[in-house]
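Need residues for this backbone.
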């Protein structure tokens, strides 16, 4: 039984669905407690069962009531284990797991700001489980430093990329053309993609600032920056970005296109991808997905991206799979983007091959699934991992 507030968009939600699929393939049954959202169909297709549940509440009284209801559902549904992927429902899940006598797992999906003792206590629930899954070595170190968590309770499992879905050879020309038409791009224009929900810590303002510098230097040329992502109610921020674009005279060079569901085609349609987060990414799936698609990526050098993107000077140019730049540094981002856009086709092709091979080896979806099932096996003395591997081969 996994519990998560919504099934709308985001890495935690996708991971819940992907693990539901792995459990189903292994012969188990997967239940997800959530309010639901646009990914409900994906969950059903993966073989998971949605039970609608007010998992997002932060009201202490409601959290306790939810705990009692979860414990009831555990017994009613015959659940063997609870896996929480968000803080508020994790408190309910922790109480329910103790009450029902079943193992409890958490995945530490985010860096989670701690600005005082109350917030620290609230966040600490993610380190109170029997086993804690950290989605990067950066996240694992964060958990150890904050809560003194011993390493034997931590398992580092990087978020996985579906190498079949994110395969350049699997993307039709029509999918790419359709998306470029939706973005209003001419055939001679190159897309520079920044895929992230519209929130200040994702760094859209820095991307716009970099585009302004490139335009002033006469190096933007036929490139168009695509800011792809929902505002999710932050209309004030979207409006601020539009004002920044207008003030910089970039209306023809920077576009807000909203949510993009076909991300493989989005990377295939783009000459570059940017991860401009100004706060640490606990993992940052965009960087690995872009590399799997052979789309050159520039990411900020904080959080987990240095684990997933190999860049100079840490590695030689012949081993690099992308670029790393300081956060909130429009000049550095502009320089990296200039360098990327001026590379020869052969150089880009070689980098793309290296990047895809590394993602396949270290950050694949199958690796994430088998490692997560192995965590369940540790607690349940089950054979889910072996069943999954056997079913996948047959």
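Answer:
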């Amino acid at each position: 039984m996994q519990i998560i507030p919504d099934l709308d968009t985001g890495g935690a939600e996708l991971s819940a669905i992907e693990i539901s699929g792995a459990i189903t393939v292994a012969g188990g049954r997967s239940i997800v407690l959530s309010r639901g959202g646009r990914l409900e169909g994906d969950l059903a297709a993966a073989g998971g069962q949605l039970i609608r549940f007010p998992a997002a509440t932060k009201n202490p009284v409601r959290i306790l009531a939810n705990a009692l209801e979860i414990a009831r559902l555990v017994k009613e549904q015959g659940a063997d284990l609870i896996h929480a992927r968000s803080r508020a429902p994790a408190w309910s899940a922790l109480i329910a797991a103790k009450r029902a006598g079943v193992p409890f797992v958490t995945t530490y999906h985010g860096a989670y700001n701690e600005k005082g003792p109350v917030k620290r206590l609230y966040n600490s629930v993610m380190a109170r489980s029997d086993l804690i899954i950290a989605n990067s070595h950066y996240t694992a170190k964060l958990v150890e430093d904050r809560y003194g968590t011993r390493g034997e309770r931590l398992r580092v499992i990087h978020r996985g990329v579906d190498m079949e879905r994110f395969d350049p050879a699997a993307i039709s020309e029509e999918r790419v053309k359709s998306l470029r038409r939706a973005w209003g791009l001419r055939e001679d224009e190159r897309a520079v993609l920044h895929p992230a929900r519209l929130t200040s810590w994702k760094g859209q303002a820095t991307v716009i600032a970099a585009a302004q510098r490139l335009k002033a230097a006469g190096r933007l040329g036929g490139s168009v920056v695509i800011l792809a992502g929902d505002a999710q109610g932050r209309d004030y921020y979207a409006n601020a970005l539009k004002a920044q674009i207008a003030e910089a005279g970039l209306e023809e060079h920077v576009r807000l296109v909203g949510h993009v569901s076909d991300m493989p085609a989005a990377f295939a349609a783009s000459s570059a991808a940017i991860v401009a987060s100004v706060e640490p990414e606990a993992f940052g799936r965009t960087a690995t997905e872009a590399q799997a698609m052979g789309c050159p990526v520039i990411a900020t050098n904080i959080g987990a991206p240095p684990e997933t993107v190999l860049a100079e000077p840490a590695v030689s140019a012949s081993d690099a799979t992308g670029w790393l730049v300081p956060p909130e540094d429009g000049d550095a981002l502009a320089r990296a983007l200039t360098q990327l856009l001026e590379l020869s086709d052969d150089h880009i092709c070689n980098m793309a091959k290296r990047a895809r091979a590394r993602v396949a080896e270290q950050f694949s979806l199958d690796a994430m699934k088998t490692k997560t099932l192995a965590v369940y096996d540790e607690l349940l003395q089950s054979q889910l991992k072996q069943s999954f591997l056997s079913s996948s081969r047959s």
